[in-house]
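Record format v2
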Amino acid sequence: MAHDDHDPLNHPEVRVASGRAYAAAFLIAMALMTVSLYVARHPAVAPHPMLVLSGVAAFVVAVQLLLLLKLDFSSTQIWTSVTFALAFPLFVIAVGLSLWMFHSLDARTMLMGLMR
Amino acid sequence: MVNVQGPWSPLIGRLSLGAIPDNPIIAGAFLFSAVLGVVILGYLTFGHKWGYLWREWLTTVDHKKIGVMYILIGLVMLFRGFIDAVMMRTQQVLADGPHSPGFLGAAHGYLLPYHFDQIYSAHGTIMILFAATPILVGLMNIIVPLQIGARDMAFPYLNALGLWLTAVGAALIMLSLFLGDFSHAGWVGLTPLTEMAYSPGVGVDYWIWAIQIASVGTTLGAANLIATIIKMRAPGMTWSRLPIFTWTSLSTNIIALTSFPVLGVALGLLGADRYFGTHFFTAGLGGNLMLYADLFWIWGHPEVYFVILPAFGMMSEIIPTFAEKPLFGYATMVAASFAIAGVSWSVWLHHFFTMGAGPSVNTFFSIATMIVGIPTGVKVFNWAFTVYHGRSRFETPMLWAVGALFMLLLGGLTGMMLAMPPINYSVHNSVFVVAHFHTMLMVVIYGIMGAVAYWFPKVFGFKLDEPLGKRFFWFFTAGTIMVFIPMYTSGFMGMTRRLDYIANPALLPFEIAEEIGIGLYVVSVYYFVRQLFVSVRDRASHRVGADAWGSARTLEWLTPSPVPFYNYAVTPRVHARDELVWRREQGLEAATAAHYEDILMPKNTPVPLVIGAFAMTLGFGLVWRIWWLTDASFLGIILTVIARSFVRDTDYVVRAGEVRKIEQGLRGNTPGTGGDGTQGGVGVWRPQESGS
């Protein structure tokens, strides 16, 4: 419905827009993308490239949740806390189970051969 | 940028006269669409309806009208997907056995394999993403704010934007029929078939961008509905009083919000392969083609529950109304909805058990899948106990709801079978699977048809014709049985899916039975159209009051039918879970407000439509690789969004006196007094912006 007449700029505890946080999130995400691209191009630099990439991905997710979406465990906004908490199991399910499945798949199929 | 086969020019990209298909079937479809389009345009022009269309519909931010438009898009696409189904059934019954005849240049049947592939791909994409999803989103749009006592959605402007992005996706698919071709790689987009090397045409690009653009709309709509349910509830509407349909809407939109972005990523990476020449999903060169299947189904399975949960909610509203009893097990119903939503994130691998993952992986996902049966079983028993010792009236919505129960039983049990990897290995990719998921989607369709009949009088002020509605139901049910029982059987006999030619003549009897079934569906569609026509024609005699069914229970039946644009003249205070029942028992259901207050309403805006138009040219430019058009459209979207952010004057006030006048007019418009007869009272929908 229609917004009320309060100026959101007067309420920093519910403000989500922040130029500084957006710029930081963008730069960090770019840096992590570069790292992951380098690891993907040269898997030999890391002992377990897939785990390293997943870790970097988790880091990117954390940066986006914290700096772009402004989710945290602050007590002023219970729903952002709930959303923030939900992100963890979802990440573990989506990325963790996928990794497990592909690990199992690679041992049993010629998929990895196809990739080369 | 990837070099494309065939001619390309900077001005018109890959477009050429050769993009217009020369096929008599498509020509017939074009003629039909063109005539229909001319008739509609002529009516709008000579009936002087353009202004009305612009003011009341195209620029509206009213959640009810947006919902109606969502449902209209969904019904048009449902019809298109149904025609695809008729064509597939007819092809398979004609092309069975080596001696089957061939027509129109086909060796068997009347469709060339490439054309047949496009039809089943379009059928799946349309039915799930552009028929079921928009109709459900539309129903949630209309009903949820009414059920929680809100004036509109939390973000009315965003709501309109979601609608127009969905419309763009549907329009792109329709355009692919007459300009270029559609994807031939199945609705799931089988990799690496969707890669440039194997699908060099524009078909896969149409598929990518139609889904991508529409899914942005669905994601925005999900965020909007969640915010609405959390923040916009009327005083007294505590969580334990929230109607079940609103609960299922909340759970379903949480799934949508968390899963649709995965689809966006999967299609985005596929798009990068096709446009930039990357190798995410290619066969070879470092690509992992199973990663696409994994990502697609991480979205795809939650999407299945995204469409089924609102249907469960609709059944949970319809059954208590017509059993004249409170819903059995409210708390377990809510818990079951969220349990289904929660489990939906961890079952996606059952779509590719046969891919070759190890036994422990398959076992994990098999058990997770079977766990879904527990909350679903809870729901089925709750509905059964609701009907038990009730006074059931089998009006059309109740028929659909009970029919949905039977479909759920059949689909659920076959789903349990498919959840077991050994069975899955033997029937994978067979039409048994196709019959299973169609039975499950029938639960959705039955729920939708029941909900449309149930809430139609709330939105339009008159009931749909009962006798014709019942005929529609029974022919539809007969068609469902005749199509899908033989399909299960032929699946057991080893018939694989997506066949344009069936080599085994022993399957012919089943194909004939299915063709008869689709004929019954055609009859049911006739009765549906006739029902709409007759109901609108005789609307004066079908007029209803606030409580259209006489035994409704939830808050939305408190406000007049059709609902005035501000929903509730005074924000209602909620006292009980079944608020209307509570008020009826207190003798308060006809009580009116002692005094009215000014109402703040959002203003109409053409901005979402403009952004939609830019999204359409963006999608078109991307499909045909017209880079100047894509750049200009993208810039247009950004500039429009920025320009809109400077608009401060987005609301207007409806004065208390005006509200009083409208409310008095509405009370004079009840069936007892005969009503004013104008469009079934739809006139009260007009937003009165004079107060701004």
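Chain A has a mean pLDDT of 82.
The radius of gyration of chain A is 19 Å.
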